[in-house]
From TrEMBL, chains A, B:
This is CbiX/SirB N-terminal domain-containing protein. PANTHER family: FERROCHELATASE CHE1, SIROHYDROCHLORIN FERROCHELATASE, CHLOROPLASTIC. Pfam families: CbiX. Keywords: Lyase, Metal-binding. It comes from Janthinobacterium fluminis. Coiled coil: none annotated.
Length: 125, 125
């Protein structure tokens, strides 16, 4: 039986407050994907890290995993670190089909929404 | 005469490709705020840094400046580094009224658009 999961993959930070919008995003996404287990994982500074999160999902029988890089810019973390990690994870968990989505900053709808917010912030009060 | 400007303040990265969505965001925002000079500035690793960008705008006669933190999470960079920099910039440029908007990740419309993208990425092809 196919079991689907999604990981929202974010950078991580020292300040606990940093994660709050990512938790809201996870809840918003989970509410609209009831058949998919949606969780957060981090590159550094916060837990769980991506390999730990994927190992947990694999142990729970997940067979289809989508990783969404919740990064606006595609720099070394998205273009270098993440592909290396995913290549290793595919070797470690051959029964999990791991797909990596484009980074959120590549999506026109996301950029349009950020532009909407900036435009609102720039208008005289 | 009032002269308005907006700075989209982002982290910066080593990889030049990282900045591309921020440049698209700047263009989208500028197109809808024709009376406001919209530019990018960075915390680190890319130029111009925020103090340099503000100095240039002040020298050009800008009197009203809105800084939008293009950060999803509010960690040390947004909660600590940016307020310290802005306090110094207000001392250095007393004729520029500097307003700091909420970080983009605090905006419900932005999070909804990211959730839309994640939901699309999580649906079976």
């Amino acid at each position: 039986m196919e079991r689907r999961a999604m990981i929202l993959f974010a950078h991580g930070a020292r300040a606990a407050s940093w994660v709050e919008p990512f938790e809201r995003l996870r809840a918003l996404t989970q509410a609209r994907l009831p058949g998919v287990a949606v969780s957060l994982a981090f590159l550094e500074l916060m837990e769980p890290r991506l390999p730990q999160a994927v190992a947990g999902l694999a142990a729970a029988g997940v067979t289809q995993l989508t990783v969404v890089p919740v990064f606006l810019g595609q720099g070394g973390h998205v273009l270098h670190d993440l592909p290396l990690m995913v290549a290793q994870l595919r070797l470690d968990h051959p029964h999990v089909a791991i797909e990596v989505a484009e980074a959120i900053g590549e999506n026109a709808g996301v950029l349009a929404a950020i532009a909407d917010y900036c435009v609102g912030a720039g208008k005289p009060a």
